[in-house]
Amino acid sequence: MLWKLPLGPSVITVLGSVLASHAHAQTISHTLVASGFLKPMQVAVTPGDATRLCVVEQRGQIRLVKSGVLQATSFLNIDTLVPDQTYGGMFGIAFHPDYASNGKFYVHHTTGATSAIVIWIAEYTRGKNADVIDPATRRVIFSLASPSTQAFHLGGSLCFGADGLLYIPLGDGGYTGDAGGPQRSQAITGTSALFGKVLRLDVNGDDFPSDPNKNYHIPAGNPFVGVTGEDEIFVRGMRNPFRASFDAGTGVLWLGDVGGTVREEIDTLDPTTDAASNYGWNCAEGLLCTTNTNCNCATGGLRPPVHDYTHTVGLCITGGTVYRGCAMPAFEGHYFFADYQNNKIFTGEVTPANKLTNVVERTAQFSGGTSTITSISAGLDGELYVTNHSTGMVRKIVQSPAPPDANGNGVPDNCEPPANPYDLDADGMVGAADLAIVLNEWGNKGGIGDVDHSGSVDAADITLILGNWS
After folding, report:
1. Does domain 2-10+411-467 match CATH 1.25.40?
2. Mean pLDDT score of the chain, rounded to an integer?
């Protein structure tokens, strides 16, 4: 997009130099937030209060960290419902968009032995004590029983989109090759067809008042409403989308889909354009066709991943988050992801077309913090938190060396509200660095680059920066 902006060659040259040198000079590191967790799976920040972190433990508890201190009493304890096993447990949490007023949040967990696992999406509601949730407030939203004795690849994320709807990525529920036959990830009819999909539900309604385990409304925009196919399905062709998150800047869902025997992949889903897309499994694994003869991989209109890697690089991807914070300006618009089994962490630059480029392994930079990463999640301020499953730790990703902090108050200058609203980097002048910030955030829905507070970073913000050039 840069070449379409009304900027002279000298400005473009300066911007290119600023951005390139800034990005290449920076690395990442981490700080310890809290430890002592039992198999932590995800971090979520309580809406409206950045000092409260909720940490999901696989065994069935959500622990509360307040102002950096792990609380003795759990935020939610349902360990009597959750099995203590490798492939089952509590995987994820999502707060309702109106949590501040209705106190509702949702968890993804399983019950039962491996041979008879049931996936549950359950709603809980905050009471007078916001630190401890009463398990009796439980209300089942959705449930799905395993269709076979091979109960694996169960997904794990829950994500509310900008449309207020709940997106539920689910794996194929089986083992190597989606062995259920016919392949569940490609099927669109029958209860088992809900596996290997991203489902989309409206938790604010109930189309099934007589069913205690189905308490949701089918959004009218779901692609199989009124035609052949299960109404809950939004897209298909997933193997095990264990971690997913919406980009706060664009509204696009990023998914890390765990591969089979050959490749790991990263997919994107734009809710406004990608309904009914087919992401390929098990006709394709990453960018390669499989040996499945029941589908035509080459001409079947499959949606390719935005990035994949071979099993010489890693064996079990953990999908991450696009960084939209302010304390790591060199990594604005970078997607952070990991490999659970090979203990690695990566970044890649997100392009305006929501592709991934310049992927860099940063494991050595993140020394001591890459052990069995189960999630990379954003806080309210866009800063990123990592959960280490085997070591029971939560860490915060930081930029190294740290951005300037002229007043020494612990808040990077880049995160301080500028005295001059056009001096975005607070260096005392309006210049190329401020213009670079706007260009880095181009198209975002808000952010420091949204100079005119219109709700998006666009040409009007460029005009204001240029009009106030020092």
Report:
1. no
2. 89
